[in-house]
Write a structure and sequence with these properties.
The protein has three domains: 2-138 and 254-324, FAD/NAD(P)-binding domain; 150-251, FAD/NAD(P)-binding domain (3-Layer(bba) Sandwich); 334-429, FAD/NAD-linked reductase, C-terminal dimerisation domain (Enolase-like, domain 1), CATH 3.30.390.30. 33% of the residues lie in helices and 25% in strands. It has 13 helices and 23 strands. It has helices at 12-23, 38-43, 45-62, 75-99, 150-153, 170-181, 201-213, 262-265, 300-314, 355-359, 387-400, 404-408, 419-429, and strands spanning 2-8, 28-32, 103-106, 109-113, 116-119, 123-132, 136-138, 162-166, 185-190, 217-220, 224-229, 233-237, 240-244, 246-249, 253-255, 269-270, 273-274, 287-289, 328-330, 336-340, 345-350, 366-371, 377-383.
Amino acid sequence: MEYDAFVIGGGPAGYACAIRLAQKGKKVALAEMEKIGGECLNYGCIPSKALIELAHSVDYLRNMKGVTLNEKIDLGEWNKWKWSMIEKLTGGVSTLLKAWKIDVIHGKATLSGKNSVRVEGGKEYTSNNIIIATGSAPISIPGIEHVLYNREILDLKEIPSSMAIIGGGYIGVELGTAFAKLGTNVTIIEMMDKILPGIDESVSRYAEKTLKRLNVAILTGKKVKAVSKGKKFRVDLEDGSVDADIVFMSVGRRPNTAGLGLEKAGVEMDGNFIKTDSRKMTSVEGIYAIGDVTKGPMLAHRAYYDADIVASNISGESMEADYSSIPAVIYSDPEISTVGGKSAVEMSFPLLANGRALSMNAGDGAFRIFADEDGFITGAALAGVHSSEIISEITLAKNSGLTLTDIALTVHPHPTVSEALMEAAQIGSGFPLHYKPSR
């Protein structure tokens, strides 16, 4: 059967691209070898945030003055709810694919030529355009065994007494914080000299403060040599060891590009990633690659963005990718949300001066806005409660060419955490109402 577009991969990049193409009147097929929704909906973004929310809720009440808890968490029962919630989301996506008359083909798909795809079982399809959206998988370290990855750690039936986490990046910190709040004795082992490497210390220090409050042991500058199994698991380091009931490996992700037949079609690579131009087209005309299989932030919202670009380009609307305004969020405690980069002017407003944050017993953090010398907003680094829901205001401001004055004069509802953005902007255009910055 011949299609206008054939999408390989049913995660955020793939299903979004298929839907967008169908909305533009194209005849589309989508092949997925596992579950619609991919890693994000089934085993990553959604279940991890559900676990983080559970842990945050318990910790919030446990640390609220006047509240005494005697909680009992049945993780097996909670997991049933989690999977029912995930099935609602993935079922909704499947319903949309059907509503837009997209042919969903279950099975592993590979390129068999420039304009052809073979799905396991031998059936071949032809298409004017092929979109590779096969996502990514956790990186494993050769020789390191007896470890769990994101799929297993997010589907535990019981809360472990102790856990060693190999990798102090954002996933390790997020889940390490969550399990520590649930009562697990957590140790984070990071090869670099600090956890959350690459994140500005002015915001990452707030997450580290919470980890210390939760008695999480943080071992930096440590390289793991081996993991062995006994009564407990032992993580051997170059200068010592850590014992734990389970070991979670979280050292990054790699693109799923092996075994796709890319060489048969002549698709050029950039290391393990598929090489694309700014329109997300590969070296072969008519073959595109989007999401985690291409260089760029490995984020679901970047994948959605890529999907829009390719759907538009296939439909005759020229669009190019620009990742300079892609926001990023670390679901630590407090949340860390960033977009853009530092600039000549920097304003910082502490959440200790924000009424809504204090009413939530969540005064740790600060909202920092960056602007150029003319006051045009270039980015932000927000550490604080609900910052994941607020960073989009800065993303919009940056994309729209807004200034500090534009945000400073925008009336924000009271009491909200978003007022901290307004007052941070007021630092650059005068004085905030609830804080006197040092000059």
